[in-house]
Amino acid sequence: MRIIAGKARGTKLYTLEGENTRPTLDRVKESLFNIIQSEIPGSIFLDLFSGSGAIGLEAVSRGAKKAILCDTSKEACAIIKKNIEKTHTSENVELYQADFKEVLTNRSGDKFDIIYLDPPYKTNFAIEAIKIILDKELLKESASIIIETDDKNKLIENLQNIDCKVNDIRKYGRAYLIFLKRI
Predict the structure, then answer these.
(1) Of 87, 98, 18, 99, whose CA–CA distance to 59 is shortest?
(2) Across 13-17, 61-65, 136-140, least confident range
(3) Across residues 122-146, what is the average pLDDT?
(4) Is 24 exposed, middle or buried (0-12, 13-18, 19+ CB in 10 A)?
(5) 54-61 vs 26-36: helix crossing angle, rounded to 10
(6) How far apart are CA 147 and CA 129, in angstroms?
(7) Domains of the chain
């Protein structure tokens, strides 16, 4: 896994060993950033369920003003810290080892341009996170929420009663990227 573009381009990232995390494949990450590239410069980027931090660090490398990364795992946060040092992005990254609900609940006053959600696939964490994000009004006017999932239908069904609309859906192997905008 590596940073694909920007000031840290080509930097190989540390990854977590084992099966507790599922890194976003480089081809998925590259497609994602090709789609949102025009939104990144100067943005405030939130990467919940960060794993190795690759998505948030890619955003900073490509010109995001700030990335907030969150993961509950002590091991993941240790890897993210090493990746922050390796990419020389410490001035633009905040890292929280905490539950996503705690991080979102304590972000009063913050407004995000882009939020990336890649929770464990068999959970409802993405829906829970979106409800908190909307309730706390954490989105800027034209903000994007991007969800990585393997169950597009279940996720879309759960979005029915939420003030977001599906803007785009992309499939990469078993993974889907679902792009949302606030209604």
Answers:
(1) 87
(2) 13-17
(3) 92
(4) buried
(5) 40
(6) 11
(7) 26-182 (3.40.50.150)
